[in-house]
């Protein structure tokens, strides 16, 4: 217990102890949280207070339905895709976001250290992808914005700890998401015609694969999986498989990068146009300017699936890495 807690803290604590309803308890706990000085020594205590608040809130919610939509933590989209990291406490979600992006979320050896979402930008070659660190998912009360973040994302990374019963962690996380009508895209056919569902690509990230001695845990986990989950073993601690993870995320976002150039010039490879997989020449032209779309006659194209400078028409489907010279 930190020594420098002011008397007001203990008064609030007294009120918490004497609270007769969950609402009174929540008010007192929130007061204690606000009074608590901010330093490393109080982190664990704060996490504990937040856990008690969320327990009381779930009690309270059992009685009255909360319909207010809380968008306090809506994360503005940046980069070419938004990916939410979701999973149980202490699996390393914050450590992964810290290691993969420019953000610096709190990483701690106790559960429930994260309580609000934190976005960070991850570089992949010449583009940036947004990752969102989230609080741990649990059966207890979750703020409404938590599931909204998942629904708005382009993709869900289910993070589990390969050293601590990853199978159960995965099952619990996925069933909580499903209980809130968020499910992997592969299940869309099961809920055809049912309103309110959000289907997204899911990728399972088995974290804490630090060295060879853990490899066996991962293999057991993989062999016990009943469904065919896309799965990447990583370690936030060592950076193991980060390249593979980034590549997998990029592919799962189903986007392509295309570069434009003027005749006789080289393209600027640092500034790709990002399009949906399956996009054609017209989609590229309209992304550049409406005039281009109207006036486009044909294009010359360089890439893996064409011969150099091949002439193509408006409906030509583009591939990742194509270089395009538009002629109007
Ligand atoms: N050995 C090992 N430990 C890790 C790894 N990643 C995270 N940890 C440790 O696991 C603990 C939890 O990490 P966090 O990143 O705070 O976990 P979290 O999932 O964000 O936890 P909550 O915010 O409470 O949900 C910390 O002690 C980390 O140092 C890893 O790859 N290997
Ligand atoms: Mg965290």
Explain this structure to me?
The protein is of the alpha/beta class. Helix content is 35%, strand content 20%. It has 10 helices and 13 strands. It has helices at 7-18, 22-35, 43-63, 93-100, 144-152, 166-179, 212-224, 242-252, 281-288, 290-295; strands at residues 82-86, 118-124, 127-133, 155-161, 182-184, 198-200, 202-207, 231-233, 255-260, 273-276, 298-302, 310-312, 323-327. The strands form 3 sheets. It has a 6-stranded mixed sheet, with helices on both faces. A 5-stranded mixed sheet has the order 10-9-13-11-12. Strand 11 (298-302) and strand 12 (310-312) form a beta hairpin. Helix 1 (7-18) runs antiparallel to helix 2 and helix 2 (22-35) packs antiparallel against helix 3. Magnesium ion is lined by residues 93-94, 113-114, 133.
Can you give keywords for this protein?
binds magnesium ion, six-stranded mixed β-sheet, 10 helices, alpha/beta, single chain, five-stranded mixed β-sheet, 20% strand, 328 residues, binds guanosine-5'-triphosphate
Number of strands: 13
Strand/helix succession: HHHEHEEHEHEEEHEHEEHHEEE
The low-confidence parts are none
Distance between the termini: 72 Å
Mean pLDDT: 90
Largest sheet: 6 strands, mixed
Structural class based on helices, strands and sheet pairing: alpha/beta
Strand content: 15-25%
* Cofactors and ligands: guanosine-5'-triphosphate, magnesium ion
Q: What's the helical proportion of residues?
A: 25-40%
Overall outline:
elongated
The total of helices stands at 10
């Amino acid at each position: 217990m930190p020594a420098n807690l002011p008397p007001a803290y203990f008064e609030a604590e007294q009120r918490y102890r004497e609270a007769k309803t969950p609402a009174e308890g929540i008010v007192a706990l929130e007061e204690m949280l606000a009074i608590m000085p901010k330093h490393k020594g109080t982190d664990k205590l704060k996490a504990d207070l937040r856990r008690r608040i969320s327990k009381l809130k779930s009690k309270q919610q059992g009685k009255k339905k909360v319909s207010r939509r809380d968008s306090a933590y809506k994360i503005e989209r940046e980069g070419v895709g938004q990916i939410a990291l979701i999973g149980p406490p202490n699996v390393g979600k914050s450590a992964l976001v810290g290691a993969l992006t420019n953000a610096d979320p709190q990483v701690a050896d106790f559960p429930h250290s994260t309580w609000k979402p934190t976005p960070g930008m991850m570089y992949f070659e010449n583009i940036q992808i947004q990752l969102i660190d989230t609080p741990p998912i649990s059966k207890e009360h979750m703020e409404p914005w938590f599931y909204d973040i998942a629904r708005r994302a382009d993709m869900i990374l289910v993070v589990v700890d390969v050293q601590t019963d990853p199978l159960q962690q995965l099952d619990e996380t996925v069933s909580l998401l499903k209980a809130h009508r968020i499910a992997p895209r592969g299940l869309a056919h099961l809920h055809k015609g049912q309103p309110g569902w959000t289907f997204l690509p899911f990728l399972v990230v088995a974290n804490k694969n630090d060295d060879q001695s853990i490899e066996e845990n991962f293999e057991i986990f993989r062999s016990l999986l009943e469904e065919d989950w896309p799965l990447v073993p990583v370690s936030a601690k060592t950076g193991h498989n980060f390249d593979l993870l980034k590549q997998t995320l990029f592919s799962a976002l189903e986007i392509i990068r295309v570069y434009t150039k003027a005749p006789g010039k080289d393209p600027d490879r640092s500034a790709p146009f990002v399009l949906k997989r399956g996009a054609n020449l017209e989609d590229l032209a309209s992304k550049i300017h409406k005039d281009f779309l109207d006036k486009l006659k044909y294009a010359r194209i360089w890439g893996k699936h064409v011969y150099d400078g091949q002439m193509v028409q408006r409906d030509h489907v583009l591939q990742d890495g194509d270089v395009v010279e538009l002629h109007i």
